[in-house]
Amino acid sequence: MLIRKFNIADFEDEYNTLCQHLYPWTERVDTPFGSMFCIVEPEKVTKRHNHHEGETFFIIQGKGLIITEGESVEVGFGDIVYFPPFTNHQIKNISADEKLYLITVYWENMKAVSERAKTKAVEDATISAPTVFITSPAPCANGDLHLGHLSGPYLGADIYNRYQRMRGKKTYHLCGADENQSYVQLKAIKLGIDPYKLANQSATAIQNTLAKAKISVDLFLRPNTFSDYTEFVQNFFLKLYHQDKIVLKETPSLYCESCEKFLFQAYIAGKCPQCGSSSEANSCETCGRSNNPNELIDPVCNLCGSKPVERPLAKFYFPLKQYEQKLREYYQKVKMDSRLTAIAEQSLQDGLPDRPITHISDWGIPVPVAGFENQRLDPWIEFAAGGHIFAAEKINQNLNSSKGQAWKDENTDIVQFFGCDNGYFYIVFFPALFWAYDSNVILPKVFVNNEFYLLEGEKFSTSRGHAVWGIDFLQQFSADAARFYLAYTRPETQQTNFSQSEFEQTIHDNLEEQWNCWLQEANSRLIDEYGGIIPEPGAWTDNHRNFYRELTKITEAVTFAYEAETFSPQKVTRTLIELVRIARGFGQAEAYLSEFSTKKEERRTTIALESAAVKTLALLVAPIMPDFASRLWQYLGYDTPLFGGTWEDIPGFIPSGRRVGELPLISLSATNVERTTTPSL
Asked: What CDD domains is this protein classified in (predicted)?
């Protein structure tokens, strides 16, 4: 017999509670389960968490509140609580002076874990509403879009938009041009042109490039083209002002004596006060943390290069601290990657600041408060108000729907795409602003972030001209080929690099050589053996069943990679390359049996399955290569729109008796995008 006594010195802080591990008992007793004795201090709550083990709580003293997903139950002495694997849970001690004692026992059952993981994936489907509102950032109107822009939120949002439409959802993609950004005026000054002219030219160029890249946008917001835009944004500010949601403070501000100008955002550069990397005033692109101009290390004026001095200046600030608890609760529900989670955690750990929302400037929307007419609203508060609330109202007005529905309707889910350099504003600043403006505003359910896309090892830069411009690239290469490679190399969780030689090699080796060859071979078999008419499946073999199982697994993997919570065009493209490899091998291997009449029933199944694989490719690649997929869809005899409720979670056969048309082929060149092969092949 072994006897073990508790020693408070051995208790450890785990999950925000004091715990003593019981079993397995190190070097004494090995058990197939784990166990801990836990103490929850009065009015404390454990960390919300889940794990792969099943777990049971035995309450031995005190009273608590068990909080799971959408359920809260009060428990006390003698209560036993079971949590299936992957169930988010926590317990709160509801006593003001009595400790809560419990024993937890947890164990591993991998079969149950696997089944529960599949069930949870269905239960936790974040985007389930019939309408999906998708946003991508308004690019700064100081130039056109380069491939770095396209590879990230813009192509990502369009791919997701098309996927959701294929699932039968109503979707609205919102984008625009950030015309009132300080970078627009700064570049115009350096170019010696009127900033309004630069903003207008850039916004037009951005729209043209998006269209050339087949990126569809339901509302492209150009602030200077809407007569009621300025008034709306000013009223947004005034509502916060009159409700004391913003404060006026005099603080030390950087002033360039040579330029006779207060410096902010684009006009000031230095080093990040947190990580020491080169940074402009706003936020650090390296660590993602927020900063103010006077916090920068070794700041210089971006106009003349001189060192600024500090002068007192009264500006309006938005206090973020009061929204800390709501942000903590929001972060437990919203889906975002580890990079954004780190920014959120770091922001809370640093302490939420009062953020300046006005600046002395003659460019942008004037502050609508007497005595501050020489100040302009910060572009980020404008973007929150105008770029989201105003634009949502415009979309709903066009639909004859209630104003602001997309941000208040329970039947609408919101997904936002953006780059890591904007992470702080999307996950910290915007939610707090929306709560301050209207507590009924519905926030995004998923944030889809991307890292920087590099060119020759350095970040793309519009201001420095270090870029491959989207419009130039798309005039030379087909949109389908460009979209495939940008998806293939998308900087999802780490920076990736663009190389034109690698782009051409990737398209040639995979799409032109493998995909085109397989499609031509499958088309030839169908024509030679069945006159181009899809046969009805006949007898099945083990090879048939194995191939169909592969198609099903690939469809499941691609579906998973298209969902917002697990969004990965990188995975989609690589999985589809594998699909074609498997399908081509299947078709070639089964062709050995084509001349044996004794195998004609099995042969029908082979051709029907290979044709189903072509259909599967058309569906799975459609969000990434819409033109090619649409032509392939038509080749298979479908006259219904591809982007409208056509998605199949389980691969289906093409109706037998249908005659195929002209087979489309993929081309690298923009001049050969309509290339087809005739049925005689």
From this structure: cupin_DddK
User: Rounded to an integer, what distance in angstroms lies between the CA atom of residue 610 and that of residue 142?
Assistant: 49
What homologous superfamily does CATH list for 6-113? Answer: Jelly Rolls (2.60.120.10)
Residue 139: partners with Cβ closer than 8 Å, 6 or more residues away:
145, 149, 154, 177, 178, 206
The pairing of beta strand 131-135 with beta strand 412-419: parallel
Instruction: Give the tens place of pLDDT for each residue, 512-569.
Output: 999 999 999 999 999 999 999 999 999 999 999 999 999 999 999 999 999 999 999 9
- pLDDT tens-digit series, residues 296-307: 999 999 999 999
DSSP labels, 377-405: E-HHHHHHIIIIIIHHHHHHHHTT--TTG
pLDDT digits 0-9 by tens, 114-154: 776 666 555 556 788 999 999 999 999 999 999 999 999 99
SS3 content of the chain, % helix, strand, coil (to 5): 40, 25, 35
What's the CATH architecture for 477-657? Orthogonal Bundle (1.10)
Distance CA 174, CA 406 (A): 11
Q: How far is CA 615 from CA 142, 621, 653, 654, in A?
A: 43, 10, 8, 7
Domain layout of the chain by residue ranges = 6-113, 129-445, 477-657
Looking at residue 25, what is its pLDDT? 87
Task: Please list, in sequence order, all residues whose beta carbon lies within 8 angstroms of the beta carbon of residue 588, skipping any fewer than 6 positions away.
Answer: 521
Task: Tell me how far apart the alpha carbons of residues 208 and 83 are, in angstroms, rounded to a whole number.
Answer: 53
- The length of the chain is 681
Per-residue model confidence (pLDDT) at position 52:
86
Q: Which CATH class is domain 129-445?
A: alpha beta
- Rounded distance between C-alpha atoms, residue 534 and residue 602, angstroms: 14
121: CB partners within 8 A, 6+ apart? none
pLDDT (tens digit per residue) in 393-425: 888 776 655 445 667 778 899 999 999 999 999
pTM of the full predicted structure? 0.89
Q: How far is CA 182 from the centre of its chain?
A: 26
Distance from C-alpha of 449 to C-alpha of 74, rounded to nearest angstrom: 38
Three-state secondary structure call for residue 358: strand
Higher pLDDT, 4 or 636: 636
Q: Provide the pLDDT for residue 120.
A: 59
CB 100 within 8 A of CB 65: no
